[in-house]
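If your schedule permits, I should be very grateful for your opinion on a structural question. The matter concerns a single protein, recorded as an amino acid sequence and a row of backbone structure tokens. Could you please explain, in whatever detail you think fit, how the structure tokens follow from the sequence? I set the record out below, with my sincere thanks for your time.

——
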Amino acid sequence: MGKQNMYDHTIRVPFIISGPGIPKGRSTAAFGYLRDMFPTVCQLAGITVPATVRAKSLVPVITGKTKIVYPLGYGYFRDVQRMMRDERWKLTWYPKIKKYQLFDLWADPHELRNLANDPDQRERMARMRGQMREWFAGQGDPVFR
């Protein structure tokens, strides 16, 4: 049926690449989107990326020049799920049932302990909810109208 949840086992698709200039055996946990594969392969092949492409090349991460390309990552599925994450934290919102999930991906990599209602996470929840709302609204997402 497709990828219909925002858990890491679904959204973190491995991108395995080999070739000249690619460090052997190197791996990274950097977040990227599937659409980033196109400008990445273009750059590695020495092909100019068309100006209309909005995705980012992952070459700086692959070659070790930078640790991340996106400080925050976002995901969505229809009008039922919205997600944002940084290197450590992930917030998922289910607008139809008005439920949030907050995971500390370092302490809980399998996303089993929802911290959304933890009093110690109120400040983080408010900040991340605001960031999520701002980004999706800026993209014209009808869920945030």
User: Anything to note?
Assistant: The radius of gyration is 17 Å. The domain at 73-140 is CATH 3.30.1120.10 (Arylsulfatase, C-terminal domain). Strands lie at 73-77, 81-85, 89-94, 99-104. The chain has a mean pLDDT of 93.
